[in-house]
Amino acid sequence: MSLRKFFLHNIMRRAESTNEDDTETESVDEDVTDSEESAHEKRVHFLGLPVRKFTYKRLPKKFLKFSFLILNGSAFLAGITATITSVWMLSDSKLMSRLFSQRLFVTILLLVGLFACSVSFIGIMAFVKKRRKFITVYILCHVLSLTFIFICAILSFSFFDKITQKIHNDMTSTIVNYHSLDWVTEAWDNTQKYLRCCGIWSFRDWDKYRMQIPHSCCSSTIEKCLNMSQEVSYQSGCLKDSIILLKSHIHSVSVSALLISIGLVVGLFLAFGIRRRFKTYQRD
């Protein structure tokens, strides 16, 4: 009986040890699967390929600081340049007296320059003073700017047709007063000299309104243009050239808006990182 009990006791101990090994292996397998799942969750897939998630936490502290300062310093200088340029253009009477109004684009440039100076200055002050309130205002300004650019991009599709129609209406309503109003004479002369054009559609528009072709339509030397005629005048009309110039302005504005949007996204990304650093500084 004693031998039988001894064998049964050994068999039970072996069974318990095997069960413990099984549970340990299962727990290890579960830990491995959990770690794999967590690692899989941290990965971001782009076009079916796993990509590591890029956050500001991966950036070195010095890189984050210098990038933030360089970005805002560049934005501040660019804003000052845009403000000075727009003020100079608005003060130029010849530039502003043309029939196709550049005042709108210059005013937009002025507002963008002032806004860039203000926001970048807030960002620099927030970094120097380590104020979370300033960096929060900085982030809100960036979010509002991105929202405003998105709304303007949607509304700009019908904007071009309205400006084109306004230019045509202004030319049609002012050409009849070319000799009677001084500002109309100056506007037409500046437009025709700058765009190298004549009339609305062509030089024939002046004959249509029973007026002599102005000397501002001269495409040759002064001696040949003493007696203006169709042979020495510009052949293209000012409406067509104005639309071409307007398209180039819109193209420049679109490229500028794209670059500004990229800068705003980068600044927003860095601002969140700086704000996170401010939290750690305050905890320490």
Task: Provide structural commentary.
Residues 17-36 are annotated as: Disordered. Keywords: Membrane, Transmembrane, Transmembrane helix. One of its GO terms (cellular component) is plasma membrane. Strands 1-2 form a two-stranded antiparallel ribbon. It is mainly alpha-helical. The longest helix is centred in the C-terminal third of the chain and has 46 residues, at 238-283. A hairpin with a 2-residue loop joins β1 and β2 (49-52). The chain has helices at residues 2-42, 61-91, 93-96, 103-129, 132-155, 159-174, 182-195, 204-208, 238-283; strands spanning 43-46, 49-52. Helices cover 73% and strands 3% of the residues. The protein has 2 domains: 22-53; 60-284, no CATH class. α5 runs antiparallel to α9 (238-283).
Task: Give me the Rg, rounded.
Answer: 35 Å
Give the CA-based shape.
Answer: elongated
Spatial arrangement of strands, main beta sheet:
1-2
The number of strands is 2
Order of helices and strands: HEEHHHHHHHH
State the domain count: 2
Subcellular location: Membrane
GO cellular component, one term: plasma membrane
Region (Disordered): 17-36
Organism: Cephus cinctus
Briefly say what this structure is.
The chain has helices at residues 2-42, 61-91, 93-96, 103-129, 132-155, 159-174, 182-195, 204-208, 238-283, and strands at 43-46, 49-52. With 284 residues, it is an all-alpha fold. It has a two-stranded antiparallel ribbon.
